[in-house]
Design goal:
Blueprint lengths: L2 E5 L3 H13 L3 E5 L2 H13 L6 E5 L7 H7 L7 E5 L4 H9 L4 E4 L4 H19 L10 E3 L2 E4 L4 E4 L2 E2 L4 H11 L5 E3 H9 L8 H13 L6 E4 L3 E4 L6
Parallel strand pairs: 1-2, 1-3, 3-4, 4-5
Antiparallel strand pairs: 6-7, 7-8, 8-9, 10-12, 11-12
Helix pairs in contact: 1-5, 6-7, 6-8
This protein binds calcium ion.
Calcium ion binds next to loops.
Length: about 230
């Protein structure tokens, strides 16, 4: 069941559409010219209660269907336009202006219902698409990492890190207490096919200690490598 705005100036057609849509228990909002149609739309938008679909006649008094398509092209609402014209050009223009589908008048009620259902199904599928997940922030002492933005704050001040400095920091902070050999760090941060040597790791650790308050926390493990210590609770 959906709310459908029908903008159609011919009373007989509008009634037929309404009766047909009522068969599937849809709620119908009626407008008999373009101006009224837009007014109903804008009012609904203001009340954050937008219709699920618009059925829009093209040849309308006051504001034409094409103009309405143009005005509503940014809205996430499927529009099916109704056209009495049989020329391909008119249909193409409507679709180019952003309409989801069209229906040629006269149409069979069953065809109307089928097209309406398809449009609403598509819209619902689109709206329910999962938004990309935002990774939660990670805190370590007075350092805060925003993984989605690859942003790092230290004492609330943004710190500029190179790509690899960031990757290395992220690895340490998400694996506190873990001892890594230089080779493991190279493999994990630079990749197995990296041709540089483990001195690269030392240089990056040095930079992290310099840029961030990690001087003591990021510890050199004698003859092995590095680890980030657990936060000192004292
Ligand atoms: Ca008309």
């Amino acid at each position: 069941m959906a709310t459908i705005l029908v903008i159609e100036d011919e009373d007989s057609i509008r009634s037929l559409i309404k009766i047909t849509l009522n068969i599937d228990n849809h709620t119908v909002l009626e407008a008999s010219d373009g101006e009224e149609g837009l007014a109903i739309f804008n009012e609904a938008k203001k009340n954050k209660n937008l219709p699920d679909l618009i059925l829009l006649d093209i040849m309308l008094p006051k504001i034409s269907g094409y103009e309405i398509l143009e005005k509503l092209k940014e809205e996430l609402i499927p529009i099916i336009f109704l056209t009495a014209k049989s020329s391909t050009q008119d249909k193409v223009l409507g679709l180019k202006l952003g309409a989801y589908d069209y229906l040629s008048k006269p149409f069979e009620p069953l065809e109307l219902l089928a097209r309406v259902e398809a449009a609403i199904r598509t819209r619902n599928a689109y709206l329910s698409q999962e938004k990309p997940k935002k990774e939660p922030e990670i805190d370590y002492q007075n350092i805060r990492i925003f993984p989605t933005e690859r942003k790092v704050l230290a004492n609330n001040k943004e710190i500029n890190l190179t790509v690899k400095e960031y990757d290395l920091l992220y690895l340490f902070i998400t694996n506190v207490g873990q001892v890594y050999t230089r080779e493991q760090l190279v493999n994990q941060v630079w990749g197995y096919d990296y041709l540089g040597n483990s001195r690269t790791v030392d240089m990056h650790v040095k930079q992290l200690r310099k840029k961030l308050p990690l001087k003591d926390a990021l510890e050199t493990v004698y003859k092995v490598g590095y680890k980030l210590n657990y936060i000192d609770e004292n």
